Amino acid sequence: MRVAENLNRALHGLLGDDPSVYVLGEDILDPYGGAFKITKGLSERFPGRVLATPLSEGAIAGAAAGLALAGEKAVVEIMFGDFAALAFDQIVNFAAKSVTMYGRRVPMPLVVRCPSGGHRGYGPTHSQTLQKHFLGVPGLSLFEVTPFHDNRGVLDRMLALGEPCLLFEDKVLYTRPMYGEGAVDELFTWRLVDDVAVVELAGGGDPDYTLIVPGGLAHRAVSAMRTLLLEHDLAGALLVPSRLHPFDPAGVPGLVPLLARTGLVCVAEDGTAGGTWGEHVAAGLHTRLWGTLRRPVALVSSAASVIPTAVHLEREVLVQDTTIRSAVLEGLHG
Amino acid sequence: MGELRVPKLNNNDSEYTLLEWLAADGAPVRREEPVATLETSKAVEELTAEQDGTLTHLLAQGAVCRPGDLLARITSGDAEPAVPFPAPTLAEKPGGPIITAPAQDLIDSLGLDPALVRTLDVKVVRRADVERLAASGSSASQAALSVHQRAVGRTVTLSHRTIPAAYTAIKVDVGAALTLTRDLTRRLRKLVGLPDLLIAAVASLHDKHPMFFAELVDEATAAVPETPAVGVTIDLGTGLYVPVVRGRPGLAEIAETMTAFRRHAQHGTFKEADLRGANIAVTLHHDPDIVLAIPIIAPGHACALALASPQPEGDRTVATIGLAYDHRLNNGRDAVLFLQALKESLESPEGL
């Protein structure tokens, strides 16, 4: 099953099981079903709970936060994650703060879905990966869709947290299949440790390096791992968390032995360089595993640049499998 | 000669699935005739032949392919027919492990035999595996195997090659059985042990579970013996022997026979007749703390049992009895029924 279908089914299941859930967004009604068809079939099946909105992200996030505050649950679709910037005030100053501003903890079951990322030639304002701007906001959690985690489980978990959550969905994932039980390909297997998907070489022993990436980078990371193994004889492990923030891999007991035995930890992400998610994760690893880490954590991010529309220029700015491969080789040997 | 390549069907997918071949491998096709369907993330597209000719598939149905990949060749009708084209590169190394480039370099520079590399039990051969292989080849001293061990080797190899075995184990409360062996040892003034009870119990199952004593004659036929003949493994360090306890003797007789067998094993005085004609085997692994053993099924047998050592469990004593069985003769359900009957018999040993 492809990731888009998995997301669509998750929303169908959620609305079917929980009559207090609303879905809001631009152009999400049938027959159009949303810019990426993730909301397809919802409005016909659940009329009155799937609401098409005017083109105002602030209004959408504000109305959804109001629903949550009034005891309902809301899932918002921002057509392109880039436009979440327009909803920043409602998310940070209203939704996240409402959890703690009323003298007691007020549950705010709100999910803001953000189709993100490039590699499609959509240009500077429709291709971004904006996680870093939402890091460290009290009362706000960040998740990312991965090809490992079933999205129904992810949605249920976010709503149960009782605080607003952003769900980043890398658009390149939509058309890719979900990984089946246990196997990534003929070389690598995967398993869950806590909420972190761990990809390893079957019977590979201690990893020469360990990658940590958000879900959108999973395929590029696996591709880099194949090349590093077959051409450079380096066996790696890959960690793909469902929740990006708060995220503390050195605080997950099941991951500590892996991180302690690895030759290099490399954190890769699609956001632009500077003030990144990866820097935050690396700072946590340096603090917690000081004395165990063999080398400084290596970081990979997109260039500090706008994202060009022309595909050959876009490729130079965004993280590719080759970018990850070079970072690992440089980290280990450079 | 024409090629059928994967076209670029949309901007969003990096790969498609070859859903179906509409024209068979080797079939004659006409220009414009649909020959295959490709599935994108959103739709199924038909691919048509670009010329008349004979179609040769190069990818299997269900394969994942990328734009530009070669799907098939179409040879024109009057050209040399059906030239066998080489299979795609991936299919050229059937069964062999994947070898990393640095590992291959080392194999080449050491001049290692590729067959030796294939003996490595790994999915991916890495440089460290090759180094280990090279080291073991140069430093291992050679030891000749005894005639006896070579015979064992031939038998177990034949078993592994020819018998599709399955395995089930059951836990048996052996408290009552151990009490009985102590009583009998005192009363008969003869050493009676758990193996003797197990032999008696197994022999007693012959009537109700004959297929575990059967011999597979051919795919459709099994020969069922009229009486049980239980082979028992005895290895006192002088070689592995499997002498046979025939029929359904009483416990005293079994104990006496087993004592004689142990003496023969020690002195190497077994006669061929002692070792012939078993139709089921009991293997003994009841040395302290052995918890599990998977026996080899002797060629011609339907199964083999393994007795592990009794272990305290709460206020009772239990032992695991494993059953490896030829799945062509018996299924899991039969194995469970057989083991349950054996358990029942050993847990109420006064009936033996």
TrEMBL record, chain A:
* Record-listed E.C. numbers: 1.2.4.1
List the InterPro entries hit by this protein, alphabetically.
PDHB_mito-type, THDP-binding, Transketo_C/PFOR_II, Transketolase-like_Pyr-bd
Catalysed reaction(s)?
A: N(6)-[(R)-lipoyl]-L-lysyl-[protein] + pyruvate + H(+) = N(6)-[(R)-S(8)-acetyldihydrolipoyl]-L-lysyl-[protein] + CO2
**Residue ranges occupied by any Transketolase-like pyrimidine-binding domain in the UniProt entry:** 1-176
Q: What is one Gene Ontology biological process annotated in the Swiss-Prot or TrEMBL record?
A: pyruvate decarboxylation to acetyl-CoA
Assigned keywords, A-Z: Oxidoreductase, Pyruvate, Thiamine pyrophosphate
Q: Which Gene3D superfamilies does this UniProt record tie to the protein?
A: 3.40.50.920, 3.40.50.970
An annotated Gene Ontology molecular function: pyruvate dehydrogenase (acetyl-transferring) activity
Short name of one Pfam family for this protein?
Answer: Transket_pyr
Q: What does this protein do?
A: The pyruvate dehydrogenase complex catalyzes the overall conversion of pyruvate to acetyl-CoA and CO2.
Q: What is this protein called?
A: Pyruvate dehydrogenase E1 component subunit beta
Q: Which organism is it from?
A: Nonomuraea rhodomycinica
Automatic annotation (TrEMBL), chain B:
Q: Which GO terms describe its molecular function?
A: acetyltransferase activity; lipoic acid binding
Q: Boundaries of each Lipoyl-binding domain copy?
A: 3-74
Q: What class of enzyme is it?
A: transferase
Cofactor entry: (R)-lipoate
Q: Does the keyword Acyltransferase apply?
A: yes
Q: Which GO terms describe its cellular component?
A: cytoplasm
| Protein name per UniProt | Dihydrolipoamide acetyltransferase component of pyruvate dehydrogenase complex
